[in-house]
Hints:
The chain is of the alpha+beta class. The protein is built from 35 helices and 9 strands.
Amino acid sequence: MTxxxxxxxxxxLNEDRQWDDRGTGHxxxxxxxxxxxxxxxxxxxxxGSLLLESKINPNTAYQKQQDTLxxxxxxxxxxxxxxxxxxxxCDEIWEKICQVQGKDPSVDITQDLVDESxxxxxxxxxxxxxxxxxxxxxxxxxxxxxxxxxxxxxLRREKLALALENEGYxxxxxxxxxxxxxxxxxxxxxxxxxxxxxxxxxxxxALFEVMFSEECxxxxxGCLEYDPALSQPRxxxxxxxxxxxxxxxxxxxxxxxxQKIHQTYRVQYIQDMVLPTPSVFEENMLSTLHSFIxxxxxxxxxxxxxxxxFLTDLFAQLTDEATDEEKRQxxxxxxxxxxxxxxxxxxxxxxxxxxxxxxMGILPxxxxxxxxxxxxxxxxxxxxxxxxxxxxxSMVREFVMQEAQQNDDDILLINLIIEHMxxxxxxxxxxxxxxMGLLRTLVDPENMLATANKTEKTExxxxxxxxxxxxxxxxxxxxxxxxxxxxxxxxxxxxxxxxLELLTFCVEHHTYHIKNYIINKDILRRVLVxxxxxxxxxxxxxxxxxxxxxxxxxxxxxxxxxKSFLFEPVVKAFLNNGSRYNLMNSAIIEMFEFIRVxxxxxxxxxxxxNYWKALEDVDYVQTFKGLxxxxxxxxxxxxxxxxxxxxxxxxxxxxxxxxxxxxxxEEMWFNTDEDDMEDGEAVxxxxxxxxxxxxxxxxxxKFMERKKLKESEEKEVLLKTNLSGRQSxxxxxxxxxxxxxxxxxxxxxxxxxGSxGSxGSxGSxGSxGSxxxxxxxxxxxxTKGGLVGLVDYPDDDEDDDEDEDKEDxxxxxxxxKFES
Length: 820
């Protein structure tokens, strides 16, 4: 496992035709019983887990690229690649693959016969290779037709590629290109365009290496200028040689690295600008071109990262005050592109990359750059900062906390970011939106670390609220000194909406830090001034902020809201909105509905006592009348504390169930055979069962009638009545000496406890009338399996009153058990 020759990186090609790194490990080949054949196995070097298990199929086309890459397709849209650390390891595995497929290891691609008809296969196998026409000016049309006819057949493509490679044909074609250009032979140039485009679609690395070499690449681009579909040729070579300038901001001493950068830029240009957009059928044919660019970028980043002198000079010039503005702009743009290239690295290498940049002092350098006046430089610095925050927010947080011990608040990195967000001159605030997203990532507790010695969340949030929060809220506080926003233009409104979005995020994810800040600085009152803004989106942002606070159901917040009468701006906005059915109307009603449904008693009382007269005429929703009813119920409980305590006792012993579940379970209970009953349970005779069915249906129908009556009289408050003067309920509890308690329906006038016809008569074993003293404790009602409810009680006063009636009609011994 320690053999570096077999050390590989596993890549897969995603839907966007980009290579995703799947991990680093060590490759081996061997027979796998499950796959019934020789297979490639890659085990992760970190934990030994299996990264890849791929059977070497006889008909799969494997390609060897750049001496250290093996690429193949597992399925129609699933491409894989192994990138070897050493050429020797790649050669060993390539020999194994060729051995299984019966191929000569000297080839760079194994043949694929899947799509060939039997006739074609016989014809092609009978001829050893493809014979190309001689490379002459008069035979260009014949060559173009040969290339076009070979593309549909994988085997013919392979033979064409081998012929082009072995005979040095591409260089001969490029010589003809010069002749055609000199003679202005447009027809010949059009044929060369088709030939070179067809060679690209062969998807062959060995051919790409010839075409993209320093001596050939510009001529290849020249051939692709003469598209027959265009009336005038493109001027790609002119752009690359005269317009596009290679800026060497820091001298690169390695000639191989410099050549690789030039090559990658030009190949990227061919892919993006020169080649026509591939059709659906041609897209997979350019996968090798994607791979070529991808692995070139990986090599460039690796070579630059290893050049310590280069990076040292780069950061020294970035932070040097003597560096002129133009030079610094070039350095920042280079660093931005360098970071963008790093996205192609696998996670382990990306860790090392950003750690190297951190050690070199990238964050202090960014702080200097962000303090500059040049907007383009600041924009590039922001992009670099976003790479760092997305990669490792903890690294950025650690830097700014250390920095706070040495510098004033004004020059802290995070405060610079906030100031740039506030001062964004873009009318659409594009930069401010990006910076707000970065700040949100930095203050998100979800990505903060917690170790045995310290908690990053506690330390960083303490720092942020002490040193940075006042900078973030400054524009909000400056604009809300009066009853209306002092500035209400569109750009200011957009900025304040961004600030409110971040503050709302803090309310949701931070605890006492934001609570202390809001209450001590009276932030909510200032935010609600924005309810008077002419911009509806800003007023809704302010309302969302308050709704998030109320949603926490925190009494500290509630007392602050009541003390400062902070429902007044909301009620005023609601009344000013009138009867318009819009988002503002719905959002305000939803907030009051939340207070009613969640029964937030303090806020309910505050709203009704102070704003009922303004809201009592709103009858298109029942929210405010429901609040009034809640309030009056509270008052009733306060006037009768004894009644309230009795209700709470009874409510705690309820066992509510869904109505449909009750019907199913009721039917099961009545259909249970006597043999299935557990020992100690009361046995009900069939005649009693029938009787109980009728008795039970009667109170259920009565209950439904009472419920409908209550809904129609929602405005009325329930009248108080004395407990002793109420009618006896039609339900009684039947307790057995076992663990279960059954509920039976009895008429108050006929089936009294102890009467011969009742299931609970003294003669029945285990009935309530025959409970011995020694089992009085086990007969008490329990909250789990003890009470079987056949009616779903509602959460209102009416059924509370029924509970009290029920308690009155229980025998004295049972009352004592309830009270105990």
